[in-house]
Specification:
Layout lengths: L1 E11 L6 H12 L11 E10 L2 H16 L5 E9 L6
Antiparallel strand pairs: 1-2, 1-3
């Protein structure tokens, strides 16, 4: 079994209004950074897992994200997976 570290990035779909992003954008403009044209707020979930190989880890993470971490009606997700170096024995 290999060890993997993963990050799942969950964001609202582009068609969904992001009130938190709008509020942050207004705050940024209030600070004088009027060149910021849009802000979208999301979340990052970090996981460590064991899997037979990278493809298996990615498949499991996709299922986890689709079933638990993201609401597929209003959110999308992107997964990054990195294999961790095996500990020297």
């Amino acid at each position: 079994m290999a060890q993997f570290q993963a990050r799942v990035f969950v964001t609202l779909r582009p068609s969904v209004l992001d009130p938190a992003g709008v509020a942050v954008q207004a705050g940024i403009h209030h600070l004088g950074y009027t060149n910021v044209q849009s802000v979208r707020i999301g979340k990052v979930v970090e996981l460590n897992l064991e899997a037979r190989d990278r493809a298996t880890a990615e498949a499991q993470l996709t299922q986890i994200a689709d079933q638990l971490l993201a609401n597929p009606v209003i959110e999308t997700f992107r997964i990054e997976v990195q294999e961790l170096a095996a500990a020297a024995g």
